[in-house]
Specification:
With 331 residues, this protein is an alpha+beta fold. Helix content is 33%, strand content 22%. α2 packs parallel to α3 and α4 packs across α5. It starts with a helix and ends in a 15-residue tail after the last strand. The structure holds adenosine-5'-diphosphate and magnesium ion. Adenosine-5'-diphosphate binds next to α1, β4 and β5.
Length: 331
């Protein structure tokens, strides 16, 4: 396959989400095939771009289908964190060679989310070089939730479970390729196939005061909320949602450490006025997503002076040493 055949056979089919009928058809005058895509435009457009580089963000032997799923999922997660509904995405891919079997599986992984969230691929770029994948995802949001809105006294919540992706990554890096238990399988899958919490992000649009997705690690990410909101955050490590699979794999201390600083879970962390607890319970039940209250928002004066993380996120009942800063590419 050359560049143009590749675009035609692999990427063209991702223009048309299957299932509910292609709802995006009406919003586009042009998708793939011209010098640019043309969208009619409507409402507040939230868009976010993420690059995944082989050897930095994924290992060379990640199954291509999982890679396709993962690159789109992490971008959708950013839309979820803005309380946005996915609309369309673009894809810039740099490939060392054109391996059609690998590419078909890669596209199949993306297709799962294209169909699930009715988000078509509308354009991109294809080049030769070290494997690098960049996706820009676009969504509409009537009420964007920023990092800056947390108020003193708010509760701090997180969705799902934390630490699973870090445990899965560890298993994968230890060379586990054929997991010997459903627990190992689950943990590796949480790393390779994170769940973008789109429906939850939408439901929290008018409930959450601040929100982000946990990509670098809970403490590191929440420090961004604290900085943007000019507040401090106190987390109770005793309340962290830890999965049974994680607790079977490692001791409490390691589980908590990964939950606080592991990253890659792509759960939503958010702040909410404590008057909204019943509303959250209802959202959790309706969506079938667990929501756990793990802390509260404090005034910055209350921050722990010994905390390395600019004194803004204080963890109580936690393991001694936790990494408080996230991954930093040029540190
Ligand atoms: P140009 O040379 O004008 O930049 P290209 O030849 O790079 O155009 O691309 C031709 C068409 O194919 C464009 O509409 C572009 O958006 C689309 N395209 C190229 N690569 C991808 C990709 N990886 N995913 C989706 N669309 C792509
Ligand atoms: Mg052109």
């Amino acid at each position: 396959m050359d560049e143009f055949e590749l675009i035609k056979t692999i990427f063209h089919p991702l223009q048309h989400p299957a299932g509910e009928g292609d709802k995006s058809a009406d919003s586009f005058l042009m998708k793939i095939g011209d010098d640019a895509a043309v969208w009619k435009g409507q409402g507040n457009l939230a868009f976010s771009i993420d690059t995944l580089v082989e050897g930095v963000h994924f290992t060379p032997d990640i199954p291509p289908k999982d890679l396709g799923y993962r690159v789109l999922a992490v971008n959708l997660s950013d839309l979820a964190a803005m309380s946005a509904t996915p609309q369309f995405f673009t894809l810039a891919i740099t490939l060392p060679s054109c391996q059609s079997e690998w590419l078909k599986l890669f596209a199949l992984g993306m297709k799962e989310l294209v169909d699930q969230y009715q988000i078509p691929l509308v354009g991109g770029d294809t080049t030769k070089g070290p494997l690098t994948i960049t996706i820009q995802a676009h969504g509409l949001t009537a009420n964007p939730v920023y990092r800056s809105g947390a108020q003193v006294g708010d509760d701090v919540y997180v969705s799902g479970c934390l630490g699973d992706a870090a445990a899965g990554l560890k298993l994968w890096l230890d060379g586990i390729r054929n997991p010997d238990s459903s627990d190992q399988c689950y943990l590796i899958e949480r790393f390779h196939r994170p769940t973008p919490r789109i429906e939850l992000g939408e439901a929290l649009a008018t409930v959450a005061t601040a929100m982000l997705d946990v990509s670098d690690g809970l403490v590191a990410d929440l420090s961004h909320v604290a900085t943007a909101s000019q507040c401090a955050i106190e987390l109770d490590a005793g309340k962290l949602p830890l999965s049974e699979s994680l607790l079977k794999a490692v001791d409490q201390n390691q589980a908590k450490t990964w939950a606080l600083s592991g990253g890659d879970d792509y759960e939503l962390a958010f702040t909410v006025p404590s008057s909204q607890r019943d509303v959250l319970k209802q959202i959790s039940e309706e969506l079938g997503v667990s929501l756990t209250r793990i802390g509260s928002v404090k005034s910055p004066g209350n921050a722990n002076k010994n905390n390395a993380n600019k004194n803004l996120v204080n963890v109580i009942n936690g393991p001694e040493a936790i990494k408080t800063s996230g991954y930093n590419h040029f540190a």
